[in-house]
Amino acid sequence: MYSIKQLQEIVNKQVEELVLPETPIELYEPIKYLMAIGGKRMRPVLTLMGCNLFTDNIEAAKSPALGLEVFHNFTLMHDDIMDNAPIRRGKETVHEKWNSNVAILSGDVMLVKAYELMMQTPDAFLRPVLNIFNKTAAEVCEGQQIDMNFEQLKTVSVDEYLNMIALKTAVLLGACLQTGALLGNASNEDAEHLYQLGKNLGIAFQLQDDILDVYGEPEKFGKQVGGDIIANKKTFLLIKTLELADSETLISLERWLNTDVFISEQKVKAVTDIYNQLNVKALAEAQMQQYVNLALNHLNEVRTGQERKQPLIDFANQLLVREQ
Amino acid sequence: MYSIKQLQEIVNKQVEELVLPETPIELYEPIKYLMAIGGKRMRPVLTLMGCNLFTDNIEAAKSPALGLEVFHNFTLMHDDIMDNAPIRRGKETVHEKWNSNVAILSGDVMLVKAYELMMQTPDAFLRPVLNIFNKTAAEVCEGQQIDMNFEQLKTVSVDEYLNMIALKTAVLLGACLQTGALLGNASNEDAEHLYQLGKNLGIAFQLQDDILDVYGEPEKFGKQVGGDIIANKKTFLLIKTLELADSETLISLERWLNTDVFISEQKVKAVTDIYNQLNVKALAEAQMQQYVNLALNHLNEVRTGQERKQPLIDFANQLLVREQ
């Protein structure tokens, strides 16, 4: 059995050894650039963990694990164009460093490379692995579209929000675990439990992100605290607040949402005060815990020894206590 | 055996029956829009012809044929953003009718749907069919990048140009015939000959396009005559002219290439006069005929009866005599 650290080292090696053509450089250099600037490599590690849950021979999962990381980075490259984001992981985004056309086309070829890597799998697994990948890839695009649509809407329900983050973020984590499990010769039933584990964990993880954006310690969180508030981003906290606020609080909140001229610190403080008043942090934490419990229930159902499940439990704990 | 007309009807029915989710509409509506506004459906017809060359049962090739058409339309959707093109087949392009973000994301999901359709193929063909598709998809992206790079270059050699059009346009036609052939139980050798047939025919087709843009009759050609000249597009005609012109002609030509202020008709006439002087139309036609001959040689090598080859010969003739 591998430790998380060992799996991370295997993944880093895989990423370093990713083979891409040399030319045209405008097409392949941005892929190398984006893949090299890091990230947590959560998706390939989860893929290997899904496999390692069932077997010590994780060879078959290595290329698909890398394929899932390449896919994730493809979505980042295109999302950053759409979101007009200048910075990713502290570096210039691809469309900033080169231009939008390069980011579009380089992203396209990245998706093709992801498929190539997913296909480096034994024949018996080829169709099931690609079926999961196709379904997930379409869902991630749907999630991004729904997220962009939210910007144009005045209100969004909690259910609509949870559906969006499931599609945009969580299903891919589910797909990673499920793919790894299948490649580790798990039964379809166990692989499905792992999908549900990853999906529910992913939703919990995104809810935590909403909380940390407001309540995280800047040094540990690594982003500007209050960024979501400044941008009027429809997070769980804002959606829940709009749902619960009395008319007086609502007027005060909407004044902040509708003004273009404000001092950031003042807006962040005022909106956070409203969140505190309505106790939405505790509601978000409760919602998050519900998803964590769902995830752990699915892990419980998986028919393999408890000791093999421990790394996954540790990984989930690492993910979910970034702040404390 | 099917006639070209019958295959075209089968393809049109396939396109009409393409199943896509209803929502998010911003994601799927543009795909339906672009697929509905037509085009020659050359790629799926070639796929079915490749199959029908070897068997009368073309069932297995139907979904992949549609997948190759969806892929082609995906490249159009993204290329139109990159080329800033307002019109496609007489209608607004997707990024014009909606916006660039919609065209990026809708295109992305279109590529995923193309893979889904390619996968609707018997297990025995799954890996070979997807290997051809992956290789071709990456090459088409490379061709588009090289084409964009050409705009920044002062000179391009004929070989570089032929390589670019091979990647951007021709390899996909080769892949269609090869995929169809494999799904018709052709030998790998015959399928390879069909790939070469399609690729060489595709290069010939593109060279003809360069000729027609200058010398075609507007009613039959369906585009503005001289569009390439107005845009300084590095076509075979311009590249060959820059290679052959004496210094005096070169000065005159470069005056037209370097001025932003001109009357279109005057520029088209002046540059066409230079082309005529150097006889580059005949050189382009000779080059084109070379590729047609190469294509027909490969068809000759295919081990199936002459009568089964006739529709492909007819199709090639239809493609290559759009003007006369």
TrEMBL record, chains A, B:
PROSITE patterns per UniProt: POLYPRENYL_SYNTHASE_1 (PS00723), POLYPRENYL_SYNTHASE_2 (PS00444)
One GO MF term: metal ion binding
Cofactors, names only: Mg(2+)
Origin: domain of life: Bacteria
InterPro entries found in the cross-reference section: Isoprenoid_synthase_dom_sf, Polyprenyl_synt, Polyprenyl_synt_CS
One family name in Pfam for this protein: polyprenyl_synt
Keyword set includes Metal-binding: yes
Keywords linked to the UniProt accession: Magnesium, Metal-binding, Transferase
A biological-process GO annotation: isoprenoid biosynthetic process
Similarity field: Belongs to the FPP/GGPP synthase family.
Protein name according to UniProt: Polyprenyl synthetase family protein
